[in-house]
């Protein structure tokens, strides 16, 4: 089975997914043709820094900013090898930095890979019709929440914010509406006592790597039974300053 992966530039959480995914993937049965990396949140550096400052607050922003700068500098000096790019290259996988996943030149590149599946792992752009039509089987997405209840951005944050005792992971097909494809496989994850948003996201990324491999095996052997969503459906956007304040007032921590 040939795979193309589309993700975004992140050095904190997504490398956890890719480390476990690449280590567990049987490369005799699954060949990753390319990993395409988009900009984080599809924003420039200034807009991303502003978003992160509003999210973490002054002290958290300094802490995470220092971690980010350190890893970037060490990565450029080839002294830090846990970026998405370095993890892919360790396994002989080609990496492409792209600015628009629906650009005709990149559509042509994706077509040339002749993938059976295009896998979205926190891709920061919406897939258009031309991209969705490329893979033989289809496009699938990793969503770190149980759908349809927690559609949209930052689902782990919103599950904690709303006092849930469990969150989940959903591997689903992609169509033109956000997080509204059909479910391939889904599982629950407990939100532990004294859990931080940071620790929950890390556990979710590791668990989702295992679940994606399970979903790919189902696709490969033809055992997939696609399910429609059932229950309440909500779409969440990136938290505002008020949301983050209330999150903390309810006794939760980001870091």
Please report which band the strand proportion falls in: under 5%, 5-15%, 15-25%, 25-35%, 35-45% or over 45%: 15-25%
Kindly, what is the distance between the CA atoms of the first and last residues, rounded to a whole number of angstroms?
A: 39 Å
Question: According to CATH, what is the class?
Answer: Alpha Beta
**What gyration radius follows from the Cα positions, in whole Å?**
18 Å
Instruction: Catalogue the unreliable spans.
Output: none
- Helicity, in percent? 40-55%
Average residue-wise pLDDT: 91
**CATH domain fold name:** Rossmann fold
What's the total number of strands?
A: 9
CATH architecture label: 3-Layer(aba) Sandwich
How does the major sheet shape up?
7 strands, mixed
Shape: globular
Strand order, sheet with most strands: 3-2-1-4-5-7-8
CATH superfamily: Formyl transferase, N-terminal domain
How many distinct helices?
8
Domains, number: 1
User: SS-based structural class?
Assistant: alpha/beta
Order of helix and strand elements from N to C terminus: EHEHHEHEHEEHEEHEH
Give a quick summary of the entry.
The protein is an alpha/beta fold and 255 residues long. It has helices at 14-24, 45-76, 84-90, 104-113, 129-132, 155-161, 197-221, 241-249, and strands at residues 2-8, 31-38, 95-97, 117-121, 138-143, 151-152, 166-173, 183-190, 235-236.
């Amino acid at each position: 089975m040939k795979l193309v992966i589309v993700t975004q530039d992140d050095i904190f959480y997504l490398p956890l997914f890719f480390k476990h995914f690449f280590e567990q993937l049987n490369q005799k049965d699954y060949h990753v043709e390319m990993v395409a990396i988009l900009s984080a949140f599809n924003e420039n550096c200034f807009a991303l820094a502003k978003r992160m400052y509003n999210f973490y607050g002054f002290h958290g922003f300094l802490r995470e900013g220092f971690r980010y700068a350190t890893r970037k500098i060490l990565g450029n000096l080839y002294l830090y090898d846990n970026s998405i790019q370095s993890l892919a290259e360790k396994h002989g996988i080609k990496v492409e930095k792209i600015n628009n996943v629906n650009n005709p030149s990149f559509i042509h590149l994706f077509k040339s890979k002749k993938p059976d599946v295009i896998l979205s792992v926190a891709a920061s752009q919406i897939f258009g019709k031309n991209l969705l039509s490329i893979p033989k089987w289809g496009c699938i997405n990793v969503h770190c929440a149980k759908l349809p209840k927690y559609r949209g951005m930052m689902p782990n944050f919103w599950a904690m914010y709303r006092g849930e005792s469990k969150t989940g992971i959903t591997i689903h097909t992609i169509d033109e509406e956000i997080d509204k494809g059909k479910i391939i496989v889904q599982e629950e994850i407990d939100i532990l006592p004294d859990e931080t948003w940071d620790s929950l996201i890390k556990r979710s990324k590791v668990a989702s790597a295992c679940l994606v491999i399970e979903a790919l095996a189902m696709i490969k052997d033809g055992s997939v039974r696609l399910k429609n969503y059932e229950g309440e459906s909500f779409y969440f956007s990136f938290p505002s300053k008020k949301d983050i304040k209330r999150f903390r007032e309810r006794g939760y921590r980001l870091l």
